Sequence to fold (246 residues):
Amino acid sequence: MAKSTRVPTMALELLLCCLTASLPSVSAVTPWPDKVISWWYASGSQESFEGLIAQINQPERLPLVTSIQTYCGHDVSDDGRIIMNPHQGNITACQQFFPELVKLGVRPELATGAGNCSIVTYRKLWADTTESPQVLLKAALAVNASGWNIDLEPQGGPDTGKPGWGCKGGSMPIGTAADAKLFATWLSAVRAVLKPHGIRLTADVASWSPVLTEYATLAPAVDRLQTMSTYNGASLNQWDLSLIHI
Fold:
């Protein structure tokens, strides 16, 4: 998940989004700004959605917020399919929440869960350049989402113990630069399906992953890269320095 400044009272974070390209103008779709600030939102209850609306609908804050990336229940199964996982959010609540964002001039975007974080699982997903892109398109159209944030994090490590969060554990391969090429091929297929509908595609990247650190390979396949390398910044200066790698 992409990093930023945490708002203690809400399960959300302010994201600095590193752009590689603006989404080309599509019929009846307003072009994205060259630079944007997004909120990342994890919860799925109607109550917290209402609280988020109150958080951003303030004169000094609303003009800065152009999109909100939301987990609405979409995840990756162990066999590499896009599925619905109730631990990753509430699609019904999102259907109610997104129109309220649009009224404020904020674009709603969907975000995938990271599944079990296994590169083996991700390779299965990335091999499917036909069905899974269509699944993502249908999901976005169903809730009138303006974008997709692909949050896949190939890594090893113990389960957090929280359903829907963290990896399933143990030592596992974390992927290589060659896997980044597979990822990029899949992202290109997804973008080709989303682009005619004006749906922006973002991929989360990070310097700590052999796959996700291949920025030059991944950037041409998406509309935007978003860094996860800012998690451990102990100061604003340290946080800013982490962006020089993008």
User: Anything to note?
Assistant: The radius of gyration is 17 Å. The first strand starts at residue 4 and ends at 6.
